[in-house]
Write a structure and sequence with these properties.
Shape: globular
CATH class of the largest domain: Alpha Beta
Number of helices: 16
CATH topology of the largest domain: Rossmann fold
Number of domains: 2
Order of helices and strands: HHHHEEHHHHHHHEHEHEEHEHHEE
Number of strands: 9
Strand order of the largest sheet: 5-4-3-6-7-9-8
Strand content: 5-15%
CATH architecture of the largest domain: 3-Layer(aba) Sandwich
CATH superfamily of the largest domain: Vaccinia Virus protein VP39
Radius of gyration: 22 Å
Helix content: 40-55%
Distance between the termini: 32 Å
């Protein structure tokens, strides 16, 4: 992580260069969004293509395919065999390392979904301008499939990989639950990858996932079937307050900051946890206090907040308006209001997420 110089002492020329670089980056994100949606990257990962071949294989117009390919080559994403060849005969290749980032959905380096997320949120800038003026919001359902799918895909590598296989077993109390085949509640489960990842990594465990977003639950159920764990993972389009019985582990993965009123949800998590159960919150690893300038993670989280998480939270009446940047003291206050004595920051080392035990 680095700290970007955003101090007022930066000269006009230096700051102008920074904005110009950002414009180039924004154009690259837009191109990546197109490459994702149109299937260009998946085709190029399988085999090099000329513009006519790429257009034919993806059902798109050749002239657009050619311009996109040339942009990607100029931007250093693709290589081209013979730049001097006739435009229709130039063959473009996707290097293996780039292909992993752009097409390997299980790789920790697969950051293409972030471009899908940013591109999707950008479709709603007019609505966001209105929300900023009125104090209202732009809800998760309004933001639509691009943002929903981008979020799910961005978390998938972690939720199927390090989270259930390294991070959770590193916490002794949770490792004991997983080893004895305990019962887990996944609050705010989204596309269900956290629930599915836990079930895949720990065959004795049963998981109940809860989310109030119907389209997300529909996808989660299909994902569980395809992963072969639908017999041990059940998804409910409902508030976790409807949960029956007690759970050995009650977890909320990267969702508390999105809740318009997190205190009742945390109180529910406390209520449905078994007497010796563990209540876990995993949320953004932002700085403990506000400082400026901030590192790249802090900048990223504020970027999500101003375009998605805060507008979604404020779309609901009576929202506390947390936003993405939920610092430990904020969660501590919510937890105490929900009846917990305190929170404990657990020693899990991840660049983007902080692990809290509530007790």
């Amino acid at each position: 992580m680095t700290i970007t110089d955003t101090s007022p002492t930066t000269t006009a020329e230096e700051f102008g260069e920074r904005i110009f670089d950002a414009v180039l980056g924004a154009q690259l994100v837009q191109a990546a969004y197109l490459g994702d949606r149109l299937g260009y990257y998946r085709v190029l990962a399988a085999e090099p293509s000329t513009p006519p071949e790429l257009a034919a294989r993806t059902g798109t117009a050749e002239r657009y395919a050619r311009e996109w390919l040339e942009h990607q080559a100029v931007a250093g994403v693709l290589t081209v065999d013979d730049p001097a060849a006739a435009p229709a005969e130039r063959r473009f290749r996707l290097p293996a390392g780039h292909a992993e980032v752009l097409t390997d959905v299980l790789s920790p380096n697969h950051v293409l979904p972030l471009a899908r997320f940013v591109g999707g949120a950008g479709l709603h800038l007019d609505a966001l301008v209105g929300a900023y003026r009125s104090g209202g919001g732009v809800s998760w359902s309004q933001l639509g499939a691009d943002v929903r799918e981008g979020q799910g895909a961005a978390n998938r590598p972690l939720f199927l990989g390090a989270l259930p296989r390294e991070y959770l077993p590193s916490i002794p109390e949770i490792r004991a639950v997983l080893e004895r085949g305990g019962r887990v509640a996944d609050v705010g489960c989204g596309y269900g990858w956290s629930s599915i990842g836990i079930a895949l990594a720990h065959p004795g465990v049963t998981v109940d996932g809860y989310d109030v977003d119907g389209p997300s639950i529909d996808v989660a159920r299909q994902n569980a079937v395809e992963a072969g764990v639908s017999d041990r993972v059940r998804f409910h389009c409902a508030d976790a307050a409807t949960a029956e019985g007690r759970f050995d582990l009650v977890a909320a993965f990267e969702c508390v900051h999105d809740m318009s009123d997190p205190v009742p949800v945390l109180a529910t998590m406390r209520r449905i946890a078994a007497p010796d159960g563990v209540v876990l919150v995993v949320d953004e690893r932002v700085a403990e206090t506000f400082t400026a300038p901030g590192d790249e993670v802090e900048q990223l989280m504020y970027g999500w907040s101003i375009t998605c998480c805060l507008p979604d939270g404020l779309a609901h009446p009576g929202s506390v308006g947390t936003g993405t940047v939920m610092r430990p003291d904020t969660l501590r206050r919510y937890a105490r209001d929900a009846g917990f004595a305190d929170i404990e920051v657990l020693p899990v080392d991840d660049m983007f997420f902080r692990f809290y035990r509530l007790g």
